[in-house]
Amino acid sequence: MKRIGIIGKVQHPSLMETIKALISWLNDRNLEAVIDNETASIIGETSTYNRSDVPDKSDMIIVLGGDGTLISVARLAEDKKIPILGVNFGNLGFLTAITLDELFPTLEKVIKGDYKTVERMMIDIKIIREGKEVGYYSALNDIVINRGALARIVELEIKVDGMYVSAYRADGMIISTPTGSTAYCLGAGGPIVYPSLDALVLAPICPHNLTNRPIVIPDDVVIEINLATKNEDVLATVDGQIGFSLSYRDSIIITKSSNTTSLIQSPQKNYYQILREKLKWGERIGLKENEDV
After folding, report:
1. What does the pLDDT read at residue 106?
2. Which residues are catalytic?
């Protein structure tokens, strides 16, 4: 590795010193730092690269931010097959699991080739209106179909591989990858799916019929969702970052993407450790100091 991309969460207050230290560390090892203009502005410099240029110019990318920043980079790099190292400057950090203290020791191993990656599934999303494709997106986490601020219950008809599943009346529907199972899907009562499993999750949001529970299905299917709600404000949101306004009888076609996101694994912790840390598993809640259970 010779060219290391750096993309930072621009709003984070303590990012300046980390970027400067990282550039200096790379320069000392004769490695080139590739920085986009937004990240460069944090340290008062300029760059000729837009953020979308960084994947083409880099052998790997270091993301300094939260999971949202990493997800946006994953979509930029989806067909480049380059590894991404996520360093947590956010809140939960399921994807950016490496801490700031672990950054340089981990990076030392990575540039020597002593690292492992995990390939995270992505999905392709097509929006069809009156027989024509009007939107195309890729997602690492999920696509969410839900009502706008003034809309009532959304009515959705769902098919899998052409087979009718059900008509849902709910606040919305989440179609999640295993990576996205610890995001919005988890909050909607969906299961945690191990990242390497070949599966997708359909999770209704506050369904009108309480027996409409989340369902896990194979990832090699074609999911078709038809909007059966008239005269309502309904949105399709990709990875919580891109929105598309839907119309009555629009169809959303979801398939597994041929592209994946390659994440560099933390050498300090495994997936179960991350779950324990982020979800506070095993902690005794509500007990005072020295209080017995």
Report:
1. 94
2. 67
